[in-house]
Every structure is written in C-alpha cells, then in structure tokens.
Specification:
By secondary structure, this protein is α/β, with parallel strands linked by helices. The protein has twelve helices and five strands. Strands 1-2-5-3-4 form a five-stranded mixed β-sheet.
Length: about 260
C-alpha cells in the first residue's frame, strides 16, 4: 500500500485520500478525508493517534443497524458520530452481520457486480449515499478530519469514496487504484474464508462466492461506472440529480479540500 496508508493497532484498511490529483492538476489536501474498516477494534493508542495526528472530528458509519449493534464503533466523545446506513437491512455479500457468518451466506450471495449496480442506482441506496456524501461535504474542516467506513472498508465505503473523489474531479483510473488497495488487507482474509469453506465441506463455487465477497475487484467498480454512464450524461449530473447533492455543496467541498 502506498504512503497514504494509516497504520493503527486495531483499525484495519485505513488510508488518507490526501495527495490524489485532480484532472485540472490540483491536489487533495492531506489529513482531511479518511476511509477505513469499522472502528470496533479501536485501541487506546489508535484513539490517541486519531485525535493528535489526524484531528478526527466526524465519523460517518455506513453500516446497518444490526452491524452497528454487533460491532459498536469505539469513538472518542469529542468526535461527532453519524450513522448513515446505505442499506436498511442485511444484504448478503455487502453487509457483514455476525449472525450471518461466512458458512451461512455462501449460497445467498448474488453476483457482486449486480450488488454494486444496486448500490449505485437503487432508489433508497442513492438517497442514503447522497445523505452520506453531504455529511462529508458539509463538514467544517477547520475542526478536523472526517472518516467514513462500513464493516470491511470496501463496498459501501468504496462507493462513497467514488462519489467524493468524483466530486473532486479525480479521474477514474486513480479512483480504481484506491479501491483496489483494499486487497492488500483483505486478500489474505478472503483466502482464509475460502479455505474454511472448503474445509467445512462446501463446494468450490460456494467457497469462491464468499472469497469474492471479501475482495475488491475491478469488475465491481466498472459495473458502477457503467450503470452511472447508462443513466446520466456525466458524474456531476449523477451527483446532483441521482444523489440529490446540492451543487453548492460540491463547490464548497472543492474549495475546502483542494490545494
């Protein structure tokens, strides 16, 4: 993983979006936009790091209510905590409730490309992603950074990152590169679940479905871009009309984030 990786004791898959370049040659300011997996394993040292080095001021939690209750975030009292679930209930392959372990969900997982298309274009998902994007865009960055996450920091977190980076005019190649960085953390985990499924007597297709649910694949995000391109003339129209994000919020976001 590149220099944007943030090393914590308990928090996984964390990185700073600072340093990414826009199509007009500007740069995302460091230390303002953070993404990660869930914060349930935040240690005391992690909390100090978030406070002192990263000046964390807001957390946007994209998980379902069940996920949040099973793995509550450990967030300092000084940090604003905003739950904005992308899905209202469990969606196999995307949400990761403990009650639906890997051995239980293998046969339930549909094609991940279809799930990503649903996240990008489904009515309730669009409304929720738009709300989450506004929570980030309208943040007062003079107070500190904002961090968003789901459970693994891959799917819902990844799609919100696509939306925010697109709003900042980062090209799709860099967006894809950032998305695929998750595999440096999740690759070994995906292989572990694959082996566990086979050891439990599941067939190879079932084990592969679970493995794929933990991986970031270019085909998943490509499906998002295709779905958006089919329905909207450009990303800004998708942001404003598809997600109902005010154009003024996007303009203000760029002003606050880009150098």
């Amino acid at each position: 993983m590149d220099s944007r990786k943030i090393n914590f004791e308990g928090i996984q898959n964390a990185r700073d979006l600072g340093g990414l370049r826009t199509t007009d040659g500007r740069t995302i300011a460091p230390g303002r936009l953070l993404r990660s997996a869930n914060l349930a394993q935040t240690t005391t040292a992690d909390a100090i790091n978030l406070h002192e080095q990263w000046r964390l001021a807001k957390v946007v939690d994209l998980r379902t209510e069940t996920e949040r209750s099973e793995r509550p975030d450990v967030v300092p009292k000084s940090v604003a905590y905003l739950p904005v679930p992308v899905f209202d209930e469990q969606v196999a392959g995307i949400s990761h409730e403990k009650s639906a372990g890997a051995n239980k969900i293998g046969m339930m997982i549909p094609k991940m490309e279809e799930l990503y298309r649903l996240m990008a274009t489904g009515g309730s998902c669009r409304r929720n992603l738009g709300r989450a994007a506004e929570c980030v865009m309208e943040h007062d960055f003079t107070e500190g950074s904002v961090l968003w996450h789901c459970t693994e920091g891959k799917d819902r977190c990844g799609l919100l990152t696509v939306i925010l980076l697109s709003a900042l005019c980062v090209d799709r190649e860099q967006i894809m590169e950032d998305y695929l960085l998750t595999n440096e953390v999740n690759g070994p985990k995906a292989e572990m679940y694959y082996r566990q499924m086979l050891s439990a007597g599941k067939d190879e297709s079932e084990a592969a479905a679970v493995k794929d649910a933990f991986l970031a694949k270019a085909s998943y995000l490509s499906e998002v871009f295709s779905a958006i391109d089919e329905q909207y003339p450009d990303m800004e129209t998708y942001l404003c009309e598809g997600l109902s994000v005010p154009r003024e919020s996007i303009v203000r976001f760029r002003k606050n984030i880009l150098l």
